[in-house]
What does this fold into?
Amino acid sequence: DKRKTWCQVWGENEDSASKSTEFHASLIAPEKFDWRNQNWEKWLQRWERYRVASNLARMTSTYQVNMLIYVLGGEADELLDRLGLLEEEKEDYETVVRKLTEHFNGKFNLVFERSKFFARNQYAHEPVEEFINNLHSLAKNCRFDGLKDELIIRKIIQGIQNVQLSESLQVKRYLTLKEVEVRVKQSEMVRKQQEEIRGQIEGKNLDVANKEVQQGHTAARWSSCERCGGFHKNSPCAALRYKCNKCQKIGHFAKVCRMNQNQVREIAADDNESNSGSEYHLQSIKVSAISREKPDIEVTIGGNVVGFIIDTGADVSIISGPLYNSLFSKRFPLSKTDLKLYGAGRHPLQLLGKFKTTLSIKKGRKIEDTIYVMKED
It folds into this structure.
């Protein structure tokens, strides 16, 4: 029969019971007591945990006393002799611990410990959980007894960083320690959630703002009117009823007549700003908004997008006076220039001035350039 008898079961239970009461010497004891700082309460707390976990508490009282004195170190033997205990008292664990506690607490600075507690406030960016735990730890050494919870409540309310919550809790008459801790922890959690939500909303608002800016730039893409040379959106052009004095055709002014289109395509520059007095001729203008041809590229100047013609063989950038007055005069004041430009047949072109700015083109490329403003007849 493989079934166990009652005697066998009883014997096994006896063996397991005896094993559960064995002292586990392999369990590492607390660190040696610091006789200089003499933080007895803290060390004793760790020792009591070790005494229970190692089954030392199940041993005889004499055995426990010997283990305690051994772990405390050689100074403990001398101290035990000075405590004035009777021989039988030296073998009673509870009596020895009580006498040691009275000895060490006699050197305890209660005023200092309480000062640390009342001076403790929540640090900036310190989690409220950490602040509350530290208050409980400090209160252990203050001997507040029955006032402990009430004083911790007052210190939490006075010491938290949230001034509005502190004022709100101060007017409450009856609050338990648990209620106060729950309130301040919930408030911190809600604040963090709101900050996260605000961050997400601000990110979305930034995207919307960027789109509005881009739309604003699109709205600023005005080109000079091919009929009058001015700048207007969808309103009827006044030149529709006028006859051109050059080609005698109705529908545009003489200054924008295509008969003088070649004049824009052949411009020479006389560099009087140098002492050389030499001249050089350009096949066409490098970047120009005065041409009536379809723009090759869109260039951003001061937040406004304008169509321009590109010629890699040119050396100057030029825009018309009406374009400057419409979009750039308020932001970019003109400075005087001695540069002379000549059109076809050495016909001089009158310049109103120049200004320096940043030209932005596609793919984020930016260049610093001088823009010359030409007066139109």
Strands lie at 267-270, 279-282, 287-288, 297-301, 304-310, 317-320, 340-342, 348-349, 351-360, 366-374. The CA atoms of residues 341 and 349 lie 5 Å apart. Residues 6-106 form one domain. The radius of gyration is 46 Å.
